[in-house]
């Protein structure tokens, strides 16, 4: 996947092959992820994975700009998605002003907005002003406090119909794709079939149009907890701890540096 994806090529994957999206927050990891991913998400999840916060709500516009720039520098041929942090799109004027900052100060290809039909007017305002938007429906991490926790969606017929309404509203407003998080598999599958844009799942089963994971979860670096939907592709925390211990042991025994490591 060396050729950079575009909005058009992303949309053309619908019904052809699943999209691969992964989070990244710096140049180093972005460069490592670039060869195997279609899209890199600079998620406000960085505030939990790397800032030690309990949720994503305290992420700022300045943080997102800084980390998005870092990712763009590391993965110049990647399609980069910048999360709009909590409180930066409460109305269409603020949303446009902050999204313009993302486009002017970084090389991000689009912004991501959480919300369904209630945020469609904001998505429409952004897209009509030249801002590409990835939607985000289902479980909304930025609403965790108002909802009293992280709750799986689509458990009732009413929730299913609401999610379908959300997806169609976001699509109609101009979003070129959307993330669907924490939704019952059958409902997520139905939603992916009822819209023409790609639906990228996280905790939403395999029958959507792509998958996204937080890289520190999938690499086993984040030890506090592992969501049910995460598969650990390596035990990163153990590997890092072992490497650091080996380094510390060699330093304490004066086994490092050896002659080949000195000038």
Automatic annotation (TrEMBL):
<dbReference type="Pfam" id="PF02548">
    <property type="entry name" value="Pantoate_transf"/>
</dbReference>
<dbReference type="GO" id="GO:0003864">
    <property type="term" value="F:3-methyl-2-oxobutanoate hydroxymethyltransferase activity"/>
</dbReference>
<dbReference type="GO" id="GO:0032259">
    <property type="term" value="P:methylation"/>
</dbReference>
<feature type="binding site">
    <location>
        <position position="83"/>
    </location>
    <ligand>
        <name>3-methyl-2-oxobutanoate</name>
    </ligand>
</feature>
<keyword id="KW-0566">Pantothenate biosynthesis</keyword>
<feature type="binding site">
    <location>
        <position position="44"/>
    </location>
    <ligand>
        <name>Mg(2+)</name>
    </ligand>
</feature>
<comment type="function">
    <text>Catalyzes the reversible reaction in which hydroxymethyl group from 5,10-methylenetetrahydrofolate is transferred onto alpha-ketoisovalerate to form ketopantoate.</text>
</comment>
<keyword id="KW-0808">Transferase</keyword>
<keyword id="KW-0460">Magnesium</keyword>
<dbReference type="GO" id="GO:0000287">
    <property type="term" value="F:magnesium ion binding"/>
</dbReference>
<feature type="binding site">
    <location>
        <position position="114"/>
    </location>
    <ligand>
        <name>Mg(2+)</name>
    </ligand>
</feature>
<dbReference type="InterPro" id="IPR015813">
    <property type="entry name" value="Pyrv/PenolPyrv_kinase-like_dom"/>
</dbReference>
<feature type="active site" description="Proton acceptor">
    <location>
        <position position="181"/>
    </location>
</feature>
<dbReference type="GO" id="GO:0005737">
    <property type="term" value="C:cytoplasm"/>
</dbReference>
<comment type="similarity">
    <text>Belongs to the PanB family.</text>
</comment>
<dbReference type="GO" id="GO:0015940">
    <property type="term" value="P:pantothenate biosynthetic process"/>
</dbReference>
<keyword id="KW-0489">Methyltransferase</keyword>
<dbReference type="GO" id="GO:0008168">
    <property type="term" value="F:methyltransferase activity"/>
</dbReference>
<feature type="binding site">
    <location>
        <begin position="44"/>
        <end position="45"/>
    </location>
    <ligand>
        <name>3-methyl-2-oxobutanoate</name>
    </ligand>
</feature>
<dbReference type="InterPro" id="IPR040442">
    <property type="entry name" value="Pyrv_kinase-like_dom_sf"/>
</dbReference>
<feature type="binding site">
    <location>
        <position position="112"/>
    </location>
    <ligand>
        <name>3-methyl-2-oxobutanoate</name>
    </ligand>
</feature>
<dbReference type="InterPro" id="IPR003700">
    <property type="entry name" value="Pantoate_hydroxy_MeTrfase"/>
</dbReference>
<keyword id="KW-0479">Metal-binding</keyword>
<comment type="pathway">
    <text>Cofactor biosynthesis; (R)-pantothenate biosynthesis; (R)-pantoate from 3-methyl-2-oxobutanoate: step 1/2.</text>
</comment>
<keyword id="KW-0963">Cytoplasm</keyword>
<comment type="subunit">
    <text>Homodecamer; pentamer of dimers.</text>
</comment>
<feature type="binding site">
    <location>
        <position position="83"/>
    </location>
    <ligand>
        <name>Mg(2+)</name>
    </ligand>
</feature>
<protein>
    <recommendedName>
        <fullName>3-methyl-2-oxobutanoate hydroxymethyltransferase</fullName>
        <ecNumber>2.1.2.11</ecNumber>
    </recommendedName>
</protein>
